[in-house]
Specification:
By secondary structure, the chain is an all-alpha fold. The chain has 8 helices and no strands. Helix 4 packs across helix 7, helix 5 runs parallel beside helix 8 and helix 7 runs antiparallel to helix 8. The protein is globular and about 50 Å long. It starts with a helix and ends in an 8-residue tail after the last helix.
């Protein structure tokens, strides 16, 4: 999987990346389910490339890093009025849910609410990425979309920190 996706990684880099993904996958798979449900351990499902899995979040995180690197990490905070696309609004509203989701996870001693939120953020980000240009549009659209990318990256980093996993900067 790692060799086919990123062939310019050295053997040592692939080993480190595989270890990060493996540890994160086990943690995530253990915590992503409601604590009151039975879980069937399945290696193939744990390392699938889409669905509510850590690798899906890692891909979104790596894509955010790539976009921000390509943009030169310069994200303007100009607030110029312009109509919001539906995909931008949907992602922004999902990002605003963090506080309530975090409180729900804490109050119920159940981290799967936070992980589900991270998955929804990643899914909305992927829809935005696949349907709207991020780096090419004129201002203020470019800046706003890069702000959303930065917010997604920060949100996912927060979730990775809570989980105690080290997310790869690129895949």
């Amino acid at each position: 999987l790692l060799v086919s996706k990123e062939s310019n990684l050295s053997s040592d880099e692939r080993k480190v990346l595989a270890q990060k993904i493996g540890i994160a996958a086990v943690k995530y798979t253990d915590l992503v389910h409601d604590r009151n449900t039975d879980v069937v351990f399945d290696w193939a499902k744990m390392f699938a490339l889409d669905g509510n899995l850590i690798i899906y979040l890692f891909y979104a995180f790596a894509r955010c890093n790539s976009l921000l690197r390509e943009a030169g990490e310069h994200v303007s905070l100009k607030n110029q009025p312009a109509p919001w696309e539906e995909l931008e609004r949907t992602l922004a509203f999902e990002l605003f849910e963090l506080e309530s989701v975090l409180l729900k996870s804490i109050n119920n001693y159940d981290p799967h609410h936070l992980l589900d939120h991270a998955y929804r953020v990643s899914s909305q980000f992927s829809r935005l990425y696949n349907n709207l240009p991020i780096l090419k549009p004129d201002e203020p659209y470019r800046s706003r979309r890069l702000q959303l990318v930065r917010a997604v990256k920060d949100r996912l980093q927060f979730v990775f920190d809570v989980l105690g996993v080290d997310a790869p900067e690129r895949l």
